[in-house]
Design brief:
Radius of gyration: 21 Å
Protein name: UPF0735 ACT domain-containing protein MUN87_04395
Family: Belongs to the UPF0735 family.
Pfam families: ACT
InterPro entries: ACT-like_dom_sf, ACT_dom, UPF0735_ACT_dom-cont
Helix content: 25-40%
Strand content: 15-25%
Distance between the termini: 19 Å
């Protein structure tokens, strides 16, 4: 993928040139292992390899872009002062941007929390983040509810 400072735009498929549309088709064939090579993918969609190389790092399906940047986590927390604050600081230290927070009222000393995160600026991987979150006192459960929009 391109450098993080590149700008991207959401454009309706009907306005894309044929070279970009066919590049997306070729990339899908490669991603789904329906073909073994770029040569075979471009031949199958009727695209020159030079056009494929021109656009391959510039066009992406919308779901692909969003999928890589969002994750929703679910937590069971014990009702203790500062637990949510500590959890949020661990998330922030990894470079994630917290998009939404939903917390239930604690019942019988436990609360459920759901966080939606933008992971675009994340400095570690998801497994490391989950490991660190599970180490927090009074966090009894951490699960990935979803990632992306698909």
């Amino acid at each position: 993928m391109s450098a993080k400072n590149d700008k991207f735009y959401l454009v309706s498929e009907q306005f894309l040139p044929d070279g970009m549309k066919k590049t997306l088709e070729a990339k899908k064939l490669l991603d789904t292992n329906k073909v073994d090579s770029i040569h075979e993918a471009t031949r199958q969609v009727g695209l020159s390899r030079s056009v494929f190389y021109k656009y391959r790092d510039a066009v992406f399906p919308f779901q692909h872009m969003v999928k890589e940047q969002m994750i929703t986590l679910f937590f069971h927390l014990e009702d203790q002062t500062g637990v949510l604050s500590h959890l949020l600081s661990v998330v922030a230290k990894t470079g994630c941007n917290i998009l939404t927070i939903h917390q239930t009222i604690p019942i019988q000393g436990k609360a459920n929390v759901t966080l939606s995160l933008n992971t675009n600026g994340m400095t570690s991987d998801i497994d490391q983040l989950l490991f660190e979150l599970k180490q927090i006192d009074f966090v009894t459960q951490v699960e990935i509810l979803s990632s992306g929009v698909s």
